[in-house]
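Comment thread on ticket #2218

A.B. wrote:
> Attaching the input chain for the structure job we discussed in standup.
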Amino acid sequence: MATESRRLVLLALTANMGIAVIKGVAFAISGSSAMLAEAFHSVADSTNQLFLLRGHAASRLAPSARHPFGRGKEAYFWSFMVAVFLFVGGAIFALIEGYRRVANPHESEGGLLFSLGVLGVAALFEGLVAFRPAVKDFNTARAGRSIVTTIRESKDTALIVVLFEDSAALLGLFIAATGLTLAEVTGWAQWDGVASIMIGVLLASVAWILAYEMKGLLIGESTTRRERSLIRAATLGVPAVSSVGRVLTMQLSPHEILVNMDVEIDDDLNVVDAERTIDEIEARIRELVPDATRIFIELEPAE
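C.D. wrote:
> Ran it. Output below, let me know if you need it in another format.
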């Protein structure tokens, strides 16, 4: 996790803990199911930030005999746990609470203006403290690419998780406000439960997307096509290299790439020149792709 990503996680943790308290107090006064679902949503998000910080700390541990490539993938494991906890601790609870409210409707005890005021404060806090910095960093990482492409190619799981969580939080606040307003205007108290169910569906969808993205990184996803092309181009730029065969890569952590490649060199090189060629290849690759921290090259004589 880069310094900026860790800053985003800490900002999100601060925002979610404060919002969870606000929503909890609002539920205690109003008795709204949507407000309760949102309170548990914020509690789940706060726990998720702790998961991300744990992954950051574990991924920085030095390589050992048991983990020769380090423990960088712990960042992906704990990001996957975010998806699991978001589903179990947020989505399922919201769905159950929403169903109970639809089956046994009762009017909220607090006034509509009070509930909307609480949601407005939560939205303002969420947007300024957590969501806005996340969007700013995400747009920087996009570098002209589409949103979908950036999400699919990003290896910075902390940024993606925080962005999705904050987006879901703001949308959940809007859904809760809509449900409360409809329940007050129409007199049909079940709208509060419907809003809670919609929040549950929202959280389940976000959890599935995050789990799908983290799964690829956990089981050994390659780096991006652009970086693979840069690795090949850097290698071909070495004068003694005749051609490049297989280029196998694997993302070890958000900022660590394993590179394993077959390289054909001039057959008249001696051992010393071959070693120098390997050093030059590694230096050029790291110049173009700084995250390529572990490079293994198999030399073969040109046919």
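A.B. wrote:
> Thanks. Noting for the ticket: Residues 3-218 form a domain with the Alpha-lytic protease prodomain-like fold (CATH 1.20.1510.10).
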